[in-house]
Amino acid sequence: MNVFCNHIYCNLRVILAIQIIKSILQSYHLFRKKAPQKAVFFMVSYIWLVIIGSVAQNGVVVAEVKIDTIQQANILNQQIANNATGQYLAKLSKLQGVTHYSSMANPIPIATFTQASAMVKGLDGVIVSDQTEHKMYLFTIDGELGIEAGGMGEGTESLHTPTDLVSKNGLKIYVADKENGRVKILDHELHYLSSLDISRAGTDYSGGLDRFGVATSWKPEKLCLLDSGYLQVWDALGRGIHRFNSKGDYLGFSTLYEVIGPITDMQCRADYIELYSAQSKKIARISGNGLWLGSYDITRDHVYLSNISSTNYADKWDELEQNYGLWVNSITEGTRLWILFERALFSFDIVQQEDN
After folding, report:
1. Contact call for residues 333 and 141 (beta carbons, < 8 A)
2. What value does the mean pLDDT take over residues 193-217?
3. Which of 78, 94, 110, 185 could link 143 by a cystine bridge, Cβ 3.0 to 4.6 Å?
4. How many C-beta atoms lie closer than 10 Å to residue 315's C-beta?
5. How many Cα atoms occupy the beta-carbon half-sphere of 148 within 13 Å?
6. Which residues contact 18 (CB under 8 A, 6 or more apart)?
7. How far apart (Å, rounded) are the C-alpha atoms in residues 290 and 287?
8. Inter-residue contact 308 to 337 (CB < 8 Å)
9. CA–CA distance, 155 with 36 (Å, rounded to integer)
10. Within a 10 A sphere around the Cβ of 189, how many other Cβ atoms?
11. Buried b (16+ CB within 10 A) or exposed e, 169-179
12. Residue among 220, 132, 229, 125 nearest 175 (CA)
């Protein structure tokens, strides 16, 4: 008789848990866009409720319940994979004695995007641009959304397809406002300061090396800020690089499109820049004053560049790119690693490697 009652009790508990999941998910969808803390609240509430209901009279968690709890948490993980972190599932796994957590559950992003285009380090956390939503977001070191700025338009506080961000120290942010034809300069709280233009671009420089037509329209797409403070801007319309000094004065233009093909990325080095072309699979090096330094074939290993191997989720890379798009950028800040994909931002703890 006791066995029968226990069986009935377990079934009722499972039914109750299912109803709780449905209720939580329905409530969660109201906060689906950019509300990580509310998502965390739903996650924690559910997990602890299941843990409390799963403890037997002698204080030992039944093995079947332990597995079932993890499975339910993974389902919830997939359903609310918008705005939370994986730390709660990790704590649950540790509490119930489950090892190899990273191979059991995928990490949960702290925020999702339509088409994330760039990420830079701010004074406290990171700044992300979404070129489809025409917005920028500042996330604190704790993964909370601190500031949301922009919106489609032509005004000083608006954006139209922000494709890239650069900054030296987080105090001044340069934004490639592509379709508005400008490079905006913002402060650390994403307020407008000024813009860079090419009104003095109809001049010959360096004996013909830097020649730009009299047209002053451009589409800044990629940015590079050298240690000298000089800004290099890839122009998708002019198919070359515009250069500005640290005061914002226009210095010149170099045509590079015919050399390696369409540019898909640009990276800053100490005193030169590197341009990448996915079509030709080549990389070109250009000096800070526009001189050609050569090109060579290269295959970029995004897994290596992302530094995900320093976390517990290195084995999840293929799934992450499949679910959230291509890798955009990674930033290391102390013991935290920020990884941005086209559709999601993750914040991971860096794992200390044990000596063999």
Report:
1. yes
2. 59
3. 110
4. 12
5. 13
6. none
7. 5
8. yes
9. 29
10. 12
11. ebeebbbbbbb
12. 220
Q: Which one, of 245, 247, 248, 327, lies nearest residue 290 by Cα? A: 245
Q: Is the pLDDT of residue 327 over 60?
A: yes
CA 191 to chain CA centroid, Å, is 21
- Measure the CA dihedral 267/210/271/186, to 10°: -60
* Amino acid letter, 174: Y
Residue percentage of the chain with pLDDT more than 70: 63
Question: So what's the pLDDT on residue 45?
Answer: 54
SS3 string, the chain, reads CHHHHHHHHHHHHHHHHHHHHHHHHHHHHHHCCCCHHHHHHHHHHHHHHHHHHCECCCCCECHHHHHHHHHHHHHHHHHCCCCCCCHHHHHHHHHCCCCCHHHCCCCCCCEECCCEEEEEECCCCEEEEECCCCEEEEECCCCCEEEEEECECCCCCCECCEEEEEECCCCEEEEEEHHHCEEEEEECCCCEEEEECCCCCCCCEHHHCECCCCCCCCCEEEEEECCCCCEEEEECCCCEEEEECCCCCEEEEEECHHHHCCCCEEEECCCEEEEEECCCCEEEEEECCCCEEEEEECCCCHHHHHCHHHCCCHHHHHHHHHHHCCEEEEEEECCEEEEEECCEEEEEECCCCCCC
Q: What is the mean pLDDT of the chain?
A: 75
Global pTM reads: 0.68
What tokens were used for 77?
Answer: 């993980």
38: which 2 tokens?
């509310």
